[in-house]
Amino acid sequence: MDKNRQGAKASYVAFFVFVAIWIMSPSFVRMGTREAFVEFQAPALHLVAKGRDLARFWELKSKSAEELAAASRDLARINAALELKVRTLEDIRQENIRLRELARYAAPREFLTIVARVASRDSSSWWHRIILRKGRSDGVRPGCPVVFSDRVIGKVSLVHLNTCEVDLVTSPNFRCTAYLEGDEQGRIVLVSGLPANSLGTARAKIAVIPMDYLPPAGQSPKVVTTGMGGVFPAGLIIGTLDANIRTTQDGNFKEGTLQPSRNLFSLQEVSVLVPIHPAAGEILLEKRYEDFQ
Amino acid sequence: MSWSWLIILLATYPWLFAADLLSDWTAPWGLNVFISGAAIIVPCSRLRRWQAVLFSGCVGFLFEARRPIPDGILALTLVAAAIFLTSNKPLLRSAPRLLRASLIVNLAAATLWFSAVAVTLGQLSFRNLGDFLPQLLLQLIASAAVTLILFWPLSLSQIAALDHMNAPLANETP
Amino acid sequence: MRELNDLKVLPSTRIERLRLIFVFWVFSAGFIYIAGGLLIRQIVQSNELKEQSDSQSRRIILKPPARGLIHDRHGYVLVENRVRWSVKADLSELQPEFQAEYRKLLAAEKARETGHIDREKLQDTARRNVLQSWLDKVWFVIDATSRNIKKNKLPVKSNPVDSPTERLVKIDDLKKHLRERRALPFTLVSDLAFPGADQSVTPEEGVRAVARFVEQFPVDGPIRLDSDIIRTYPHGTLAAHVLGYVKDTDELPPNSLNDEKNELLQKLHYTGKKGAAGIEESFNEILCGLSGWELWTKTSAGYNKELLRKSDPTQGSEVVLSLDVEIQRAAEKALAQIKDSQGKVLPAAAVMLDVNTGEILALASQPTFNPNRLADRVTRTYFDEIETSGGWLNRSIQGLYPPGSTFKVITAIAGMRNKVVDWDDILECGPSYRVGSRDFPEHDPAGYGQVDLEKMLAVSCNVWNYRVGLGVGIEPLAAEARRFGLDTPLLQMPPSAGNKNATELPFPANRGLVIPDTAYKLRIGAGPWTGGDTANTAIGQGFLLTTPLHMACVAASIARGETRTTPTIIHDPGRDGRHQGAEAIGLNGLQLAALRSGLNRCVEEGTARSVMIPGLAFAAKTGTSEYFQKGQKAHLAWIIGYASADNPAVAFCVLVEGQLDTSTWGGKTAGPVARDMILAWAKKTPVSEVKSEAEEPAR
Questions:
Q1: pLDDT tens digit sequence for C671-689
Q2: Spatial distance between the Cα atoms of C243 and C364, rounded to a whole number of angstroms
C-alpha cells in the first residue's frame, strides 16, 4: 500500500512534467497526434456510413412489385420531361460558349465536382460541421465550397486522408457575401454563422443590410451567393432572410437571421466543388501552422 | 501484458463510437453524447497505473480528434483522473462505487471540455452566461443519462477483455 | 485579594480621574461629529449625493447620424453614403506573436554585437513586422488570381521602396495608436473597397475585394472585418466645388437630450462628420441630421453595464440642387480639354443658368479635386497637390477677373440709355483711338471702318466702345454696371433661412467686386480719374473685377430683357422667376432687337463663329482680356451668351485663364466649352421647345 502511495506521488510529478512538456511542444506535434486519431477513426466512420447505405438498400429491396412498378412509371415520366430539358439546355450551353468566345469573356472559375456521402454530423452547441466520406486521397482541399443541388451547405475546413470536415453555413467559422432578393441596387451583405443558443436551432446572421432595404412584401427574401469572393459560384441559394430585421447598435445598418435553405442535418449526400486552381484563402489555410516568413 | 491497453481499447472503442453516432443523431438539438469519462473506470480498477494512464490518454484523444477542443484538455483530464483512481483503488472496489466513480468522472470531464471549448471560441463571458449555463446543464444531464444507460454493457465488455488478458482484480494490490 | 486588586477599574487618584474624563469627552465629541456627519450625508444631502453618484455610474454615448443625400434637379444622386469595409487587427490577440518576433529580433541584434540595443525601437519594429506580415496576407487574398497564385505560392513581402503606401504598416501610425487607443483594434486597411485614395478602383473591383476577403480570409484569428458608413461622391470630381467634402469632427450634430439635466454625465461619442466646403458646408445644418444617444449605467471598471434609455439617430434631410448632371458633366469634360503647351489643364470656370428662374444648371471650376479622397483621412500629399494647383478655388464664384469685351454689352446699353448713340448710328472706327496723349488700339490692326451696334457686337470693335464710353462718361457707365448688379453679392440665402449673411455656397467673392469710378480710384490712392481709365473701363479692362457667375447673370438678364438675375443653386419647381432688384432693361424695342441681333451675329459671322451649332441659333459675346501673371501679360478668354437665340432658356459664361505660353482667345478657347454645354442642354430639350417655347429643360 505504502509503495503504491509513493508511486502515486511519482506519477503526479510525472503528470505535471508531461503537461508542461505538452504545453511547450510545437503545434505540429499536437496536430500530428490529432491527425493520427482521426485516421484511426476514419475506417469505422466509413464502415458505419456504408452500413447505413446498405440498410437503405435492403429497405428499398423489400418493396413490393406494385410499388416498384408505380415508381418506375413515375420515373419514366420524369425522365421524359428531363430529356426534353437536357436538349434545350444543350442548345443554351452551345449558345453560351459561342457568345463567350465572341465577347472574349474569361472563363469562370472551373470546378471539379466530387460527390460525397455524409458520414457523420456534429452540430452540438457551438460548431456545426458534417464529416464527409471523401478526403485528401479523393482530391478534396480545404476551403472548397460544399453544395447540394443549387444550395450552399458550407465550406471544407479540415481534410484528412479519407474524410473531410465541412463547416456548415451555421458554423461560427463560416462567412460569405450575399445578395438579398428584392434589393435592386445589388448591395452585398455579410452572412456569418452564429453559435447556437441553448436548446436553440442553428442560425446564421445576415449583417450589413442597408438601412433602406425593404424585403419584398409577403415573402421571405432569398439570400444568394455573389460569386465575387472566388469561393462560391454566383447565384447559389444560402437560405432565406427571417422576417425579423432589426437595426444595429450603431444605427448604420440592419441585421437579420438566416434560415438555412434545407435542414442541414438530414443531408445524405452533397457535392464538393474543388476549384482547378487553388484560391489564395486555401493557401493561407494550408500554411496556417507554418511560418510565412 | 504489454499489449493489454490496446486490447482493452479495442473492447472499449465500439462503445465510444456508438456514443459518437448517437451524437450524430442528437445533433439537431445541439447535444453531444459523451461517455469517454465513464470508459476509463473499469480499466482503472484492474490495470497497472501506467497502463491505465496510457489508456485514458488514448480515449481522451479519440473524442478530441474531431472536435475543436483545445489540444489535450480532455486527454490530460482523463489521465489525471486515472492517476488518482489507480492510486486510490478502494474507491473502485464494489459495483456501486464503480458507478459512482464513473458518474463523477464523466460529468467532471464533460464540464471541463465543454467550458474549455467555450473559452477558446470566445463564448464564455459574463454576458452570455445565461446561454452557457443551460447548455452545460443539458450536456451534463445527457452525459449522466448515457453513463447510467451505457455503463453496464460498457464495463461488462471491458471486464471480459480484462479477464481475457488476466488482469488482476481491483482489490488485489498490483 | 491580589486578584481583586487587579480587577480595579477606576483610577484611584484625582489626576487620573480627570484624565479619564477628558479622554471620555474627546472621544464623545469625535463620535458625535462622525454620527452627525453621517446623519447630514444620509438625510440632508442624500438627494444631491445620489445625483452625483448617478452621474458617476452613468454615461451617455452619442452616435452620429447619417448625413442627408444631395440630388440634382432630376433626382440623380450627387452625394450619398456608402458602406466602408475596413480590416482591423486585434492587438491583444497578437501579443504572443509580437513577443516571438521581438525575441527573434533581439537575438539577431545581440548576434551582431553592436553594443547599445534600443529595446523600445526593437519592440516597435517587432510589432510592425508582425502587422505587416498580416497585411501582406490580406493583400495576398485580395490580389491573387488563380494565375499569379500558381507562379507565387506565398504572399509577397511588402517593402517601403516599391509597395504602394497603403500596403505598408507605418511605424508612426502604430506608435500613435498604441499611445492613444491601445485598447481598440488597429486599422490595417481603412477602406477595403477603395484601398488607396490614389488608386482608381471601379465599384465592382471594390466589391470584389471585399468579397474575396470575406470568403477567403480565415475567420478565426486576430484579423477582423469592420463596416461603417462613409460619405461618397459617385461622380468623383463632378461638381466638386459645388458639393464640397466632409471632414471628421468631434462636435456631433444636435441631439434630443436635455443638456442641462445631463450636464454632469460623462459623454462619449463616435467621430462625426461635418461639411468642409461647398453645399456640404453651407447646408451642413440641414444635411447633418440629429444625433442619437444611449444612456448606460457603467461598471466600476468603466464598462457599459445596462442600457437605460436610447434614441436612434435621425438621418439628415436631403438637398436638391438646381444642377443638371449632364450639363455639368459636359462643361467639365470640355474644360478638361483646355490645356497649355505642356499638357497641363488651364484654370477655368463655366456657368450655365436657367434664364427664367436663375437656377444654376452647371457650375464648374478647374482645376478641381476629388472629394472622395478627402472624405476620410486626407493625405498630406493630396492636400498639397490641390493647394499648389489652386484647386480649392471655385473660380466661377470666387475668381475675380476683368470681364474684357463681354462688358461691351453694358457699354452699349449705357450708350443708348444716355442717348450717346442709337442702335442704327454708324461710327467711323479706325485702327486706334487717341485719348489724351495715348493711342488706344483696335485688336484688328486694319480697323473696322464703319461700325454700327450690331457690327460692334459681332466683331467686338474696341474703338466704338472708346468713343461711346468717353461720350457717356465714367459715372453713368459705372451706374449702368451697378444697375446690372456687377457689384451685388450673389447667392445670398433667402431671408427666411434665418442667418442674414449666409450664402448658398461658402465665401463667394462678394467683397472684391470692383466697378471703378473717380471715387474708387481716389480711395485706392491711384490718383485722379483720366479719360484713359474710362476708355479702358468701356472695353472691360482696367480696374473692373467681376466673377463668371456675375457675367452669366448679365447674359440671362439681357435674354429676359431685364437688369438683374438672382442665381440660385437650389432647385425649387415652384420658383416664380422674380428676380431681386430687377427692372426692365430700359431700351426701346428697336434698340433691344439690335442688341440681340448683334449677339446672334457674333455667333453667325463674328468672333464666336468657330463654335456655331448648325440648326441651333444662340447668342454670344466673346472677350479676351489681359491680366498680369508673374508681372507679364497673359490673356483671359471669355464667352457669355444665351440659347436659343429666339427663345432664351439658358444663359452661360465661360472663362479660361490663359498662361504665358498659350494663345488664348475668347471664341477659340472658351467657345467650345459653351458649345458643349448648349449641346448637352439641347439634347435633353425637345427640338420644338428649343425653337418655340423654351421654359425649363425637360427631363
A1: 999 999 999 999 887 655 5
A2: 11
Does the distance separating the beta carbons of B139 and A123 come in below 8 Å?
no
pLDDT per residue as tens digits for the range B103-121:
999 999 999 988 887 777 6
SS3 C230: strand
* CA distances (Å), origin C408, targets A168, B15, C402, C465, C672: 78, 105, 12, 7, 21
Query: From CA C34, how far away is CA C39, in angstroms rounded?
Result: 9
* A195 inside 8 A of chain C by CB: no
Is the same domain home to A82 and A218?
Answer: no
Top residue of A33, A47, A126 to mutate, by most chain B CBs within 10 Å, is A126
- Alpha-carbon distance of C362 to C353, in angstroms, equals 7
pLDDT of residue C198: 47
Q: Using the 8-state DSSP alphabet, how is residue B163 labeled?
A: H
Residue A190 sits in the same domain as residue A235: yes
Q: pLDDT at residue C157 above 70? A: no
C501 or A159: which leads in pLDDT: A159
Residue type, C149: I
Which of A175, A179, A212, A238 to mutate to probe the C interface, most C CBs <10 Å? Answer: A175
**Domain spanning C325-691, CATH architecture:** 3-Layer(aba) Sandwich (3.40)
CA angle A77, A78, A81 (to 5 degrees): 90
**Contact (CB, 8 A) for C503 and C279:** no
| Nearest-by-Cβ selection for B27 from A44, A122, A172 | A122
User: Per-residue pLDDT tens for C73-111?
Assistant: 998 989 988 888 889 888 888 888 899 999 999 888 888
Output A26-32 pairs: Cβ under 8 A, ≥24 positions apart: A27/A289, A27/B71, A28/A289, A30/B71, A30/B72, A31/A289
Please state the domain extents for chain B. 4-164
Searching chain B, which residue's CA lies closest to the CA of residue A265?
B28
3-state percent helix, strand, coil for chain A, nearest multiple of 5: 40, 25, 35
pLDDT bucket at A289, cuts 50 / 70 / 90:
very low
Cβ contacts below 8 Å, chain A against chain B, sum to 115
Distance from CA of A18 to the nearest CA of B (A): 9
| Chain-chain contact of B87 with A121 (C-beta, under 8 angstroms) | no
Number of structural domains found in chain A: 3
Substitution target from A188, A211, A236, A253 for chain C, most C beta carbons within 10 A: A188
Q: Which helix (H) or strand (E) holds C647?
A: none
The answer to whether the CB atoms of B65 and A15 lie below 8 A apart is no
**Which pLDDT score is estimated for A250?**
64
Query: Which amino acid makes up residue A97?
Result: I
CA distance A216 to C70: 27
| B13 interfacial to chain A (CB closer than 8 Å) | yes
Q: Which residues of A touch B30 (CB under 8 A)?
A: 123-125, 196, 198-202
Task: State the average pLDDT over residues C533-542.
Answer: 92
Cα dist from A49 to A136, A149, A234, C621, whole Å: 18, 21, 32, 89
Question: CA–CA separation, C552 vs A189, rounded Å?
Answer: 47
Instruction: Tell me: ipTM over 0.95.
Output: no
- What domain range includes position A70? 63-107
Report the first-to-last Cα separation within chain C, whole angstroms: 122
* Residue in chain A nearest C225 by alpha carbon: A190
Beta carbons within 8 Å of A9's beta carbon, 6+ residues apart: none
Helix axes C408-417, C462-472, angle to 10 degrees: 40
Same domain, A33 and A125: no
C216 and A231 in contact by Cβ < 8 A? yes
Listed in order, strand segments (DSSP E) in C221-280 are: 223-232, 246-249, 266-269, 272-275
Measured at the CA of C8, the angle between CA C7 and CA C12, to 5 degrees, comes to: 165
Distance CA C43, CA B27 (A): 60
| Chain mean pLDDT for chain C | 83
